[in-house]
Amino acid sequence: QVQLVESGGGLVQAGGSLRLSCAASGRTVGNYAMGWFRQAPGKEREFVAAINWSGSMTNYAYSVKGRFTISRDNAKNTVYLQMNSLKPEDTAVYYCAAVQRSSGGYYYSTAISYDNWGQGTQVTVSS
Questions:
Q1: Is the dihedral of CA 2, 90, 7, 81 positive or negative?
Q2: Could you tell me the sign of the dihedral formed by the alpha carbons of 46, 14, 67, 75, in that order?
Q3: Do the beta carbons of residue 51 and residue 69 sit within 8 Å?
Q4: What is the radius of gyration, based on Cα positions, of the chain?
Q5: How far is CA 18 from the centre of its chain?
Q6: Which of 37, 73, 86, 121 could form a disulfide with 6 if both were Cys (CB 3.0 to 4.6 A apart)?
Q7: Alpha-carbon distance 81 to 54, whole Å?
Q8: What is the pLDDT of residues 11-46, one digit of tens each?
Q9: What is the pLDDT, as a whole number, of residue 99?
Q10: Around 96, how many Cα atoms within 13 Å sit in the side-chain half-sphere?
Q11: Cα–Cα distance between 8 and 104 in angstroms, integer?
């Protein structure tokens, strides 16, 4: 099992930026594909972004494409989510997730694919 701790959330005005971090411990994060998900009050958890173990492949939800960037630094055992041009509808608890990499080395864009989750960090975007 890998332990995940998110940080970097907070309150920001619309149009602003935040960078979330997901620090992994217990295992080398380079052995894991990683993803970011979010859940707003009263809504289901939804996919935001995913990255494969090496960082060579990424995928984004349509709603964040062009505004958010997922990246990773395996030497620091950390995955990032840079969020620019934030909108009030981006308000949610953001979760980091990890799953051991497959032989194909792909990313995963569904929550059911992941078996390690962080506790979440709140992002609030005011209008």
A1: positive
A2: negative
A3: no
A4: 13
A5: 12
A6: 121
A7: 16
A8: 999 999 999 999 998 888 888 999 999 999 999 999
A9: 95
A10: 31
A11: 31
Tens-digit pLDDT profile for residues 64-81: 999 999 999 999 999 999
Could you write out the DSSP letters of every residue in the chain? --EEEEE--EEEETT--EEEEEEEESS-GGGEEEEEEEE-TTS--EEEEEE-TTSS-EEE-TTTTTTEEEEEEGGGTEEEEEE-S--GGG-EEEEEEEEEPPTT-----SGGG--EE---EEEEEE-
Closest CA to 17 of 125, 127, 110: 125
CB 109 within 8 A of CB 47: yes
Question: Dihedrals φ, ψ of 81, to 5°?
Answer: -135, 105
pLDDT band at 101 (very low <50, low <70, confident <90, very high): confident
Q: What percent of the chain has pLDDT over 70?
A: 100
CA 63 to CA 48: how far, in whole Å? Answer: 8
